[in-house]
Design a protein that fits this description.
3-stranded antiparallel beta sheet; 5 helices; alpha+beta; Jelly Rolls
C-alpha cells in the first residue's frame, strides 16, 4: 500500500454496525482510477470471445461475465485488494484478521431483468464475510446499481421474502455512485443488483473478504502473485502464511 490505511470514522463505524454498509465516494480517483479502467478494458477485450463461445456451448451464463484470473493480468487488481480507502475499515471490522478470498471483475450486459435476486451471501453462522463493490464507471439509478436492505445483517432481523421484482423489497436502499465509488457491505445482509433499464452494461469489481479462520487459509491459492506480496501484512491478507 502506498498510503497508510486508516480506520473508520465514528460515523462510519456506527453505520456499519446499525445498517451493515458504508459508502466511500471517490475512493479511487485520478490516475489510479484511469489505470484500473484501462486494465478492465484490456482484459475484457482479451477474454470476451472465449466467454461468448462458452455461452454458446452452454458452459457460461450470458447474464454476467467475470474476467478470469484478474490478479495475474495486471498489478492494479492486486493493489486495490489492500487499498487504503477501505483496508483500514476492513481491519477494524475484522479485529485485524482480514483474509482475502478472491475477486470478481464483472461486466453485466444489458438484460431485461437483473442477473440476480435479493439474497444474503452467507448465514450468520459463517465467520464475518465482507465485500467491497467498486464502480468502475458511473452507475446511475436504474442502471444495475447495488442495493441493500439496511439492518438486514443483524441477528433477529427479518424474515425477508424474495420478491421477483427488486424494487418490491421493503425497506431497501439503492446505492448509485460515480466511478471510483466503493461500497463496503456485510454479506449477512440482503442485497442485489437492480434492473438495468439503460443501454449501457454495468461494470464493477467485487472484492471478497472474511475474518480469518484456519480452515479458510490456503497458502497456495495466490502463489501466482507471490512476487507482489513482499510485506508480512500483504502475505497475511492473501493467506500465504498460516
Amino acid at each position: 500500500m502506498g498510503t497508510e490505511a486508516v480506520g473508520p470514522t465514528p460515523e462510519q463505524k456506527m453505520q456499519w454496525e446499525e445498517e451493515g454498509y458504508v459508502v466511500l465516494e471517490n475512493a479511487l480517483h485520478g490516475a489510479q482510477l484511469q489505470r484500473l479502467q484501462a486494465a478492465f478494458d484490456k482484459a475484457t477485450v482479451e477474454c470476451k470471445e472465449d466467454w461468448l463461445q462458452r455461452v454458446a456451448r452452454g458452459e457460461a451464463q450470458p447474464t454476467f461475465f467475470d474476467i478470469p484470473d484478474p490478479l495475474e493480468r495486471d498489478e492494479i487488481f492486486v493493489d486495490i485488494v489492500d487499498h487504503p480507502s477501505w483496508f483500514g475499515l476492513l481491519q477494524d471490522f475484522t479485529g485485524g484478521e482480514t483474509l482475502f478470498l478472491g475477486p470478481q471483475v464483472r461486466s453485466v450486459p444489458v438484460w431485461p431483468v437483473s442477473y440476480t435476486g435479493w439474497h444474503p451471501d452467507v448465514p450468520l453462522s459463517n465467520p464475518l464475510h465482507i465485500k467491497v463493490q467498486i464502480y468502475v464507471e458511473d452507475v446511475s439509478k436504474n442502471s444495475g446499481e447495488f442495493a441493500f436492505v439496511p439492518g438486514s445483517h443483524r441477528a433477529g432481523s427479518g424474515p425477508y421474502a424474495r420478491p421477483k421484482l427488486g424494487e418490491s423489497m421493503p425497506g431497501h436502499r439503492r446505492l448509485p455512485g460515480r466511478a471510483g465509488t466503493a461500497i463496503v457491505f456485510n454479506s449477512y445482509g440482503w442485497h442485489t443488483a437492480m434492473d438495468n433499464a439503460t443501454t449501457t452494461p454495468r461494470r464493477s469489481i467485487i472484492l471478497i473478504y472474511e475474518k480469518r479462520t484456519p480452515e479458510k487459509v490456503r497458502p497456495d491459492a495466490f502463489k501466482a502473485i507471490a512476487r507482489l506480496c513482499t510485506t508480512p501484512e500483504r502475505r497475511a491478507l492473501f493467506g500465504m502464511e498460516v
